[in-house]
Amino acid sequence: MEKMDNRHSSYNSRGYIYEVSKNTKKQYGVLKKLLNDKNIDTVINACDAGREGELIFRLVYNQAKCKKKIQRLWISSMENKAIEDGFRNLKDGENFGDLYRSASARATSDWLVGMNLSRLYSCIYKETYSVGRVQTPTLYLIAKRDSEINLLRSKNIIQLTYLMEY
Question: Where is the Topo IA-type catalytic domain (predicted)?
């Protein structure tokens, strides 16, 4: 079995280091310039209302080293009235720190589980394996159900139909 070496153990104890991809570098530059504009004192997070939207916003915000106040647009509809109501009722961004931290923890665990277990199974079985937090239990449920179906035995059933007239 192949052994893991130090190339696979580079973890920064202060957290993960993100890099802007080449494909998004130009757009990121526009966002960074806007986030750090001296004429702007507050930033509105209008990403999807939920954990993933919060994570995406904070990754860009933190990468840009922005320190400005955050307000949160929290809407679940793209109807004009819902959007207008959302902007009239912006929420304090500080109230979404736990949502960001939960999304960050989930993303980190996905990466750690996927990276480590995929590598482990690939080394053990000498094939490329992909293991993940969601796909592995889902695959288990599919395999379990498939096994149950294969174990089904046909039975002869007699069906009686009785018609009754009044």
Answer: 96-166
All domains in the chain, ordered by first residue:
16-103 (3.40.50.140), 111-151 (no CATH)
pLDDT digits (tens, 9 = 90+) for 78-137: 999 999 999 999 999 999 999 999 999 888 888 888 878 888 888 998 988 888 777 778
Per the DSSP assignment, residues forming a β-bridge with 69 are 42
φ/ψ (deg, to 5) at 42? -135, 140
Q: How far is CA 38 from CA 43, 94, 154, 166, in A?
A: 12, 21, 75, 88
Task: Look up residue 132 and give its two tokens.
Answer: 């993940």
Entry pTM: 0.67
